[in-house]
Write a structure and sequence with these properties.
307 residues, alpha/beta, Rossmann fold, eight-stranded mixed sheet, 45% helix, binds NADP nicotinamide-adenine-dinucleotide phosphate
Length: 307
Amino acid sequence: MSNDSHDFIPDLAGKVAIVTGGYTGLGFGTSIELAKHGARVYIASRSAAKFKDAELEIISECPQADVRFLMLDLANLNNVQEAAERFAQLESSLHILVNNAGVMCIPYKETIDGFETQIGVNYIGHFLFTKLLIPILQKTAGIAEKGSVRIVNVSSNGHAKLAPKEGIIFSDINMKNNFSVWARYGHSKLANVLHSKVLAKRYPNILALSLHPGTVKTNLSTGPISSTPLYRLIKPLVELGAPGPRKGAANILFAAVSPRLRLEFDNGAYLLPIGKVSAPSKAGSDPQMVEDLWEWTIKALGSRGYE
Ligand SMILES: NC(=O)c1ccc[n+]([C@@H]2O[C@H](COP(=O)([O-])OP(=O)(O)OC[C@H]3O[C@@H](n4cnc5c(N)ncnc54)[C@H](OP(=O)(O)O)[C@@H]3O)[C@@H](O)[C@H]2O)c1
């Protein structure tokens, strides 16, 4: 299968998709292909100006593309709630939700809701966004082709290499002291894997997946450069031979639309590039941790007034 041509993508006419962080990097690579294959794509992110640039690029390649902006700041739960509500007013169906936006290894800072930014944006903001979109996803799953309604959480192999070995640190979710920026990133990406597993269990009519996209040249490295300036020196080595985001989006696109993934066999799966169902880390496969993280997150959101 060629990862250049994305030739596994079927006709997506009539489908509605949301891609968080869909105007840059892997999100852009995902949005443009979904749109080129006929989906209406909502790019959910923070900057209307960056959306405009992305829209122009998509339209120049595919004049009939239908791409729209949904204002979403994952670092602000009130904004996340507003975004989900606005979407539900605009659309009556949602086939593909790609939770792609992310930050990596940025210096310690808390969101307005008191979460360290990596866990707050990469996991908790996406958890609430997804939860609020479940009714429309379920309604769509009730009428769409089986297995075509999907939630894709873009994780990383860092969930295994970088997260604390014991898994989620429930007693110190922000990992403020005694942990590196890398461990915090891995922890947030482990949460993405566990999130897909719990979604698969609770909503069996929706195909929920997580994945590692591979190493891809994007803006993500601005995070480690800002927290660890020496990273600038090793970055060329880390990215040696890595593709750009158009080619690098292949595993995300495969998870979002490939008919080879089946609801009855693959729900909750973790994918390595391209489309290889693989075992996540020990913590990422722990059914108790899957449940505990769900309970913890529901409680953390509830205590801040989000149901
Ligand atoms: N690139 C890789 O090698 C690699 C490897 C493994 C996993 N991943 C994962 O792939 C995903 C995409 O990353 P990328 O490599 O494409 O990096 P990127 O180019 O830096 O894109 C990240 C996107 O997330 C958005 N974002 C950040 N904070 C946000 C917030 N508070 N609210 C809404 N959107 C926000 C950014 O929007 P702004 O421009 O507005 O900040 C940007 O569009 C991430 O989840 C990352 O962990 C990437």
